[in-house]
Amino acid sequence: MINIQNVTKSYGAFDAVRDVSFTIEQGEILGFLGPNGAGKTTTMKMITCYMPPTRGIITVDGLDVVNDSMNVRKKIGYLPESTPLYEEMGVRDYLNFIADVRKISGQARTSAMDRVIEVCGLKQVINKDINELSKGYRQRVGLAQAIIHDPEILVLDEPTTGLDPNQIIEIRNLIRQLGESKTVIFSTHIMQEVQATSDRVLIIDQGVIAAHGTADELKASMSGQAHIDLVLRNADKSVFIESIKEISSVKLEDVILQKSGDLEISMNVEAGVDIREQLFDLAVAKQWKVLEASPSAFTLEDVFRKLTNEGSNS
Q1: How far apart are the C-alpha atoms of 204 and 187, rounded to whole Å?
Q2: Is 3.30.70.2040 the CATH number for 223-297?
Q3: DSSP assignment of 243-309, as one string?
Q4: Partners of 42 in the β-ladder
Q5: What stretches of 125-164 show up as alpha helix (H) in DSSP?
Q6: The domain at 2-216 falls in which architecture?
């Protein structure tokens, strides 16, 4: 459905995206992850014909985004990071305006309006002005404008940014519902959202693809390591960091000083290495109290941090 081949987007001497290649299959929901400035939004803007690639080829259902951009746009519904709403307009007037832009008229418009109002849950606010709406409902209106022409593909750039937990769940469920009949690519910083919604995950860092696969496949890629969570009382953070360096098989991920004064520690250990005795001896020698020491499964967040931290340190 979407094919990206050796695509680069340059701004002067800076490459925001560098020689990127991947495909998105028809009916697939792709979660697009990356730190701020990694190239997610730039890639999405190229797919939606908002800007052309500097080099490389992007096709959408066989259509080139540069040479046949108008037909590509007909196939895509796009929700940018900043929701494109005219706040002085009413919700119904705004959706009618978008229908005009999309050249939807007559009975087709009536059907389209009824469909997006139902799918996006806008019945309660359809007669309100947009400036009266909550952030969650504004996102719903943004999604409605993206799907009013019933596109085959949805491109959603951080659709849950700024929403509260209940609103996030609502939009997540809506994306999953839309993904039953459409190809969806969405970017986010929320790992749970990707795991709950996407069929496949793509991680981009510093303009290049760092990893791709299902969430389970990415977590399995860290199988050469084990993960341990540790909580210590009466432990000085800097002293702990220096002391743990003596255990060569350990790599610290996080050391957080809680408000209670306890240290919350997250670390990776080489698979098959048992460091419990060394940790116990170290705690006894330093007179630290071990409140918790437990292994845990790797999460998608662990994979994301490992890949993007490695990239930033290279």
Answers
A1: 11
A2: yes
A3: HHTTSTTEEEEEEEE-TTS-EEEEEEEETT---HHHHHHHHHHHT-EEEEEEEE---HHHHHHHHHH
A4: none
A5: 135-147
A6: 3-Layer(aba) Sandwich (3.40)
Enumerate the domain spans of the chain: 2-216, 223-297
> Which token pair is 72?
């590509």
Q: What is the pTM of this model?
A: 0.77
Summarised one tens digit per residue, pLDDT across range 259-312 is 899 999 988 888 777 788 888 899 999 999 999 888 777 778 878 888 887 545
Nearest to 21 by CA among 30, 8, 11, 12: 8
Angle in degrees, CA 7, 12, 13, rounded to 5: 80
| Domains 2-216 and 223-297 alike in fold | no
The set of residues, in sequence order, having a beta carbon less than 8 Å from that of 52 and lying 6+ positions away, is: 46, 65, 66
Maximum Cα–Cα distance for the chain, whole Å?
80
